[in-house]
Design a protein that fits this description.
The complex is a heterodimer of chains A (261) and B (182). With 261 residues, chain A is of the alpha+beta class. Chain B has two domains: 81 residues, Rna Polymerase Sigma Factor, Chain: A (Orthogonal Bundle), CATH 1.10.1740; 78 residues, Arc Repressor Mutant, subunit A (Orthogonal Bundle). Chain B has nine helices and no strands. Helix content of chain B is 68%, strand content 0%. Classes of the chains: A alpha+beta (261), B mainly alpha (182).
Chain lengths: 261, 182
């Protein structure tokens, strides 16, 4: 099968993504020549390609390079304050937050992994709905959240690590938080606590356990996700007794158990 | 927002962000090769050019942070399209748009027409139906019907099995109509 054939849509024409890759110069010489030959004999594909070329021209007219560069650099410096996860509290819940008593439970659940003097540390900061007050929540804690309260995850490490954070709810749904997919984030040594971008807000009832992994060797967030799933299945869905998940990579695990409002 | 610290993520030395290289030249390459494709995907999903521009900037910022691994991808475009699709679907999910916003989006989708010949008509049909299905099915439908990737390619891209992708597409077809059958 030729390279062009593998990039053909069921209708026999080149797939849109293949044409975009061709326009972007991603094809090796041989595939490029094959595509050239196909285009020479296929008016619909030529027409499609012309649309893509014009699309790039229109893009450059609408968003000049200087504006593009400025926007990307700004996004690099200051990630947008957008929840990574879709936990959006209802307006009624947010309004009610001021009247809700909040209290902290300091009991560490089984399997909590935190030792004093460790080269890595993690913390969670909880902010009230109107951001008028904050409190720190150490790993291993159970925490009851009031409506509208948000959390931020922070870490400190004396050596370079690879980081991923995930959460699991009582039904066993695991949500990668940082990163959302792909390899764990490489983090540099730091002597002050670094807070991950964006605050997270839970909705719904029940409990949610958040895990933060800091490993010495690279790993993929999919491996962490699978480990959390397995741990959840092993504990029969009881988040309070959920052991710290383990997988290859020599990771240190921190966790918090939240009761959602 | 807790709003205490500057939310920065540092990249360890050697992992290569852009510090040691010509960031501007790399940005220019990304702009010329992939700008329209990524912006197009963001506009397609978000149906709002302002939000799409913000989302596009986020996607390219991610690409720069992971530039070394990004460049080693067999198809950087495929990587970008995956990230852009996922990012925008997450934005929509985070917005938890109410019925009025969904209605507005669907109305806009209905009113959208291609400037040229009907070479991309499937994308409009898919756009009208996206709000009816869950996020994973949305991503599958976009990659399969709009990007015209094969079942195997979508499966590899999303880290799922081919039968899972086929099932998602069947679900999508069941909800949205027979023309979407895989």
């Amino acid at each position: 099968m030729t390279l062009v054939e593998t990039n053909q849509a069921p209708d026999g024409h080149l797939a849109e993504l293949a044409l975009r890759r061709y326009r972007a110069g991603e094809f090796p010489a041989e595939a490029c020549a094959e595509t050239d030959r196909h285009l020479a004999s296929c008016p619909p594909c030529r027409s499609k390609l012309r649309v893509l070329v014009e699309e790039q021209r229109a893009f450059e007219r609408e968003i000049p390079f200087e504006r593009f560069t400025g926007g990307v650099e700004r996004a690099q410096r200051v990630p947008r304050p957008r929840p990574r996860r879709l936990w959006v509290a209802s307006l009624a819940g947010a309004v009610a937050a001021a009247a809700v008593a909040v209290f902290l439970v300091q009991a560490a659940p089984p399997g909590a992994n935190r030792s004093k003097g460790s080269s890595v540390e993690a913390t969670v900061r909880v902010a009230s709905a109107n951001a008028s007050s904050q409190r720190a929540v150490p790993p291993g804690s159970q925490e009851i959240l009031a409506p509208g309260e948000r959390i931020r995850l922070g870490y400190r490490t004396a050596d370079a690590r690879y980081l991923a954070a995930l959460s699991v709810d009582e039904k066993g749904e695991v949500t990668p938080l940082y990163p959302e997919s792909g390899p764990a984030l490489a983090v540099s040594p730091t002597d002050k606590t670094i807070f991950l971008p964006d605050s997270l807000e839970f909705t719904g009832a029940g409990r949610e356990r958040v895990f933060l992994f800091l490993a010495r060797t690279p790993f993929d967030s999919a491996a962490a996700k699978q480990a959390v799933k397995s741990a959840h299945q092993g504990s029969r869905g009881d988040l309070a007794t959920l052991p710290n998940p383990a997988f290859a990579g020599g990771q240190q695990v921190f966790s918090w158990l939240f009761r959602k409002p | 927002m807790t709003g205490r610290q500057t939310p920065t993520f540092q990249v360890i030395p050697g992992e290569k962000g852009l510090a040691a290289t010509d960031a501007r030249a790399q940005l220019h390459e990304l702009y010329e090769r992939y700008g329209a494709s990524v912006f197009g995907r963001c506009s397609y999903v978000l149906k709002d050019r302002g939000k799409a521009e913000d989302a596009m900037q986020d996607v390219f910022a991610k690409a720069l942070v992971h530039y070394a691994s990004f460049r080693s991808e067999s198809s950087p475009l495929t990587w970008l399209i995956k990230i852009a699709t996922h990012h925008c679907l997450n934005i929509l999910r985070a917005e938890r748009a109410g019925w009025h916003a969904r209605f507005e989006r669907e109305t806009r989708a209905r009113n959208t027409s291609d400037p040229g010949p009907q070479v991309f008509e499937m994308r409009d049909l898919v756009a009208k139906m996206l709000s009816l299905v869950d996020q994973e099915t949305q991503a599958v439908a976009i990659h399969y019907h709009v990007d015209e990737m094969t079942l195997e390619e979508v499966a590899a891209l999303l880290g799922r099995s081919v039968p899972t992708i086929r099932k998602r597409l069947a679900d999508f077809a069941a909800i949205c109509g027979r023309e979407f059958s895989p």
